[in-house]
Write a structure and sequence with these properties.
There is one protein chain. This protein has 3 helices and 7 strands. The chain has 174 residues and is of the alpha+beta class. The chain has 2 domains: 89 residues, Sandwich (Immunoglobulin-like), CATH 2.60.40.10; 73 residues, no CATH class. A hairpin with a 4-residue loop joins strand 1 and strand 2. Helix 1 packs antiparallel against helix 2 and helix 2 packs antiparallel against helix 3. The longest helix has 29 residues. The N and C termini lie far apart (46 Å). The relative contact order is 0.15.
Length: 174
């Protein structure tokens, strides 16, 4: 049974994709990556992956900086012999993780049970729950036997809301 694994690695610098052949006799695949929020496909797509003759799997490393947008839900389409063999989603949330780190640091520095601390805690909780829910929607999409685009829409909406809550005051570049 064919399987695809997608991981964000190297401190959010790369997307590591491993896949086995979905079609008997396939020797490789073309991979297209699209940001679901913007609808933009990576300008460096397709990425080519060759399946090893030894175990029938292939792998590629994609630079996250080459992807459209600065994060969000991305659709990975794997083409074998010109036809879509599989569709998977991945959530790249590094920008929002930085926001959570900043909020957590604010909470650590808070020496009282004041309104400022309560506001930071409430903001961090909302962001975390939205991200967790978005990741669950991505996992549901990827494990469903029938592609359900509702999971993709749900994940994208929750990521977008988490990003709105973070606003420009949060992030690694502050």
């Amino acid at each position: 049974m064919a399987e695809t694994s997608i991981e964000v690695v190297s401190s959010c610098k790369n997307l590591f994709i491993t896949s086995s052949a979905y079609t008997a006799g396939a020797t490789g695949a073309d991979i297209f990556i699209r940001n679901l929020d913007t609808g933009t496909t990576s300008t460096t797509s397709p990425y080519s992956m060759t399946y090893s003759s030894a175990n029938g799997t292939g792998q590629i490393m994609v630079n996250v900086a080459d992807l459209p947008g600065s994060g969000g839900v991305y659709e990975i389409k794997i083409y074998e012999s010109g036809a879509v063999a599989a569709k998977k989603l991945v959530l790249i949330k590094c920008d929002i993780d930085c926001c959570l780190v900043k909020l957590t640091n604010e909470l650590i520095d808070c020496a009282c049970d004041c309104a400022r601390c309560s506001t930071s805690l409430a903001k961090a909780q909302k962001i975390y729950l939205l991200l967790y829910s978005a990741q669950t929607a991505v996992e549901n999409y990827n494990t469903a036997t029938i592609t359900n685009s509702g999971y993709a829409v749900d994940a994208t909406n929750k990521y977008t809301k988490a990003r709105e809550i973070c606003d420009a005051s949060c992030g690694c570049d502050c």
